[in-house]
Automatic annotation (TrEMBL), chain A:
Keywords: Chloroplast, Metal-binding, Oxidoreductase, Plastid, Potassium, Pyruvate, Thiamine pyrophosphate, Transit peptide. It is an enzyme of class 1 (oxidoreductase). Pfam families: Transket_pyr, Transketolase_C. The pyruvate dehydrogenase complex catalyzes the overall conversion of pyruvate to acetyl-CoA and CO(2). It contains multiple copies of three enzymatic components: pyruvate dehydrogenase (E1), dihydrolipoamide acetyltransferase (E2) and lipoamide dehydrogenase (E3). This is pyruvate dehydrogenase (acetyl-transferring). GO terms for cellular component: chloroplast. It is found in: Plastid, Chloroplast. Residues 88-263 form the Transketolase-like pyrimidine-binding domain. GO terms for molecular function: metal ion binding; pyruvate dehydrogenase (acetyl-transferring) activity.
UniProtKB/TrEMBL annotation, chain B:
This is Pyruvate dehydrogenase E1 component subunit alpha. Tetramer of 2 alpha and 2 beta subunits. It comes from Gossypium tomentosum (Hawaiian cotton). The keyword Ribonucleoprotein does not apply. The pyruvate dehydrogenase complex catalyzes the overall conversion of pyruvate to acetyl-CoA and CO(2). It contains multiple copies of three enzymatic components: pyruvate dehydrogenase (E1), dihydrolipoamide acetyltransferase (E2) and lipoamide dehydrogenase (E3). It catalyses: N(6)-[(R)-lipoyl]-L-lysyl-[protein] + pyruvate + H(+) = N(6)-[(R)-S(8)-acetyldihydrolipoyl]-L-lysyl-[protein] + CO2. Pfam families: E1_dh (PF00676).
Amino acid sequence: MAAIFQGVGAAAALSSSPSNSFDSKKFVSSPCRPFSVRKGASFAVVRSDGRVNLNPKGRRAQQLISNAVATKSDSAAASSSSKPGHELLLFEALQEGLEEEMERDLRVCVMGEDVGHYGGSYKVTKGLAKKFGDLRVLDTPIAENSFSGMGIGAAMTGLRPVVEGMNMGFLLLAFNQISNNCGMLHYTSGGQFTIPIVIRGPGGVGRQLGAEHSQRLESYFQSIPGIQMVACSTPYNAKGLMKAAIRSENPVILFEHVLLYNLKERIPDEDYICNLEEAEMVRPGEHVTILTYSRMRYHVMQAAKTLVNKGYDPEVIDIRSLKPFDLYTIGNSVKKTHRVLIVEECMRTGGIGASLIAAITENFNDYLDAPIMCLSSQDVPTPYAGTLEEVTVVQPAQIVTAVEQLCQ
Amino acid sequence: MNSASCAAKISTQPFSLNPTSPTSHDNPLVFPKPTSLFLGSTRKLRLSSSSKLNLHRRSGTVVAVSDVVKQKKSKSTPSLLITKEEGLELYEDVILGRAFEDMCAQMYYRGKMFGFVHLYNGQEAVSTGFIKLLKQQDSVVSTYRDHVHALSKGVPARAVMSELFGKTTGCCRGQGGSMHMFSREHNLLGGFAFIGEGIPVATGAAFTSKYKREILKEADCDHVTLAFFGDGTCNNGQFFECLNMAALWKLPIVFVVENNLWAIGMSHLRATSDPQIYKKGPAFGMPGIHVDGMDVLKVREVAKEAIGRARRGEGPTLVECETYRFRGHSLADPDELRDSAEKAYYAARDPITALKKYLIENSLASEADLKAIDKKIDEVVEDAVEFADESPVPSRSQLLENVFADPKGFGIGPDGRYRCEDPKFTEGTAHV
């Protein structure tokens, strides 16, 4: 675990290879902000300014380890275990999280197309059907709206299903169920029924997959009241978010990215979760706050290397929680740097960035020295041609230019 | 409107191949395959009427039991279909359904309830016939026409009326309304405004039942789910997708089609290429039954078989109940399209009149007994209205309470605390 929490100096944190940062082996995630699971729960909480609060009721303090932040002065203090951790790829981390939750709670089940015998189109559910059987890992017919609704009905009656959209885009067919039932039923039933469902799947722009397989549904779902949305970006937070989402009583949509499944990282051996509502501090800095999520995090980190060489000190935050936004982490950063750049893969219109701009302007307008900049994908159906696809999404060079512009 | 009036005429005797028996819509009966236990109990009765059947269909059990039941009744065997207690229970339920809905209409026009209100008058036989056979742990999923399903399932009339008035004492705290009746206690899983969207939820509830038995090892879990929906829904994708999944995994569910021939102003015959909905069951590998939905006892007989099948783990059944709504689609519907002859035809087959007649003719109850029930129900409904009237409206603080089961879902505010801890949240004045 100590291996993850290196010092925050620029040199140590940014060691990934330049050309394909999102495929880097040994990507080292920089120190993350810690969390406590619940107020009144019994975990040690290390705050980002280094203070440690121990809950006096420490009952299950050993079971969950908070992902502690390492401040500049205090790199190893948070590690409360000397186990070496283990290395794995992001899809394996998701699978591990899912498997552990399924072992822990018999009510957790998986539903989706090809999740069982095929092991999942991105192998996230590989081996689970053999282990848990065909009913707990259910291969559904191709009927997204209906099997999502079935997951919702199962959740209402006591199970904890994890519904997979083979590609997030397919969940557009399930919009009826996700909007009307998943989001609303807890409310319209006056709180009588909970829907502890997790809806997950790969989305985002891949490698020339064509327009329909390259969709970013977070912008479409963000208005639905009653759901939470999180996006994972590293093996560590993928496993942590998967587990937290399954344990949550709220319906959670977990966005994975097609191009991030083969990221490798060393993660702790112990049980841990990542807080669903918190953002992740990827790289503390002073000059500008860069807010990002999912794959764009890697483009940002790549740009950050160039920026550091040019003398800038960007603070990079992976917002992780797309709905609701972690206004505390974001706010603290804005108050420190006074400049904000949002880098996202959503389309410009009505995307996560648009909402984030609104939220920041509403809450932290006085702290801004410059208008918020937002780099999003173009408002086009993602073209098949590689050259066109490349300019559809934000590239590191654009990020560098934007920061330079912002910091003038 | 030539086609509409033709359609109306046809609908009075839509499926009958035997024009002399207006009350049965039978279609060609088919002997179930020997391996099917579906109509095991009534099979011997059908043997006597088999001479009428000379049509072959594809394999699969497509049957109309109404004819069977009619046979049974006319044989004047000493065994009746119901006991006195059952009879009175059924009567009370249909009367409650009718009286409640009539009161809803009154209250709506007096400005006590609002929005879209869809009344169930005329269809009581389906709700009573099916739901009175269920246990409390069995689940019911309905549509926007759900008041009577709620009442039959056991939700108190007070709770339903309060919900309609939008009061906090309503079964959904006033947050659901007419189209979203829910009850955890009675396992009423809604109340859905979009047609078809409840069917997957019902399929999910049935899936849980199977899961509980097989994975959670609750060996005696035999909970059944009933999904109610209309003829219009039977052209919707979710219907077919769920028929497939339920049959595939042998889920303990019964799909109950309340075919009242009209989807607002769209006649079933104008919307459906093959209007015989029950035939669509065998296409997915489950029995498809057609029954006279204006007759409580016929519905109940079919329901017994279908629910029994599901309980025994034999899988789903599709039951098409031919029924009729005496009022418009909703209280906002002027109901001008339906032919008055059609309305008169079905009014003559009022399920309440028929049940009353049966009870009296078979000496199961006296006029006095039934009048006593009428009076009791009147009082129940009056009491429900009074209760609803006197109940408080939701205060502002209720606005944000049930958005999330875990209110941490509102996120972390700028001050570092969870926003649900902000007092404005409990007051309902915070901006999410």
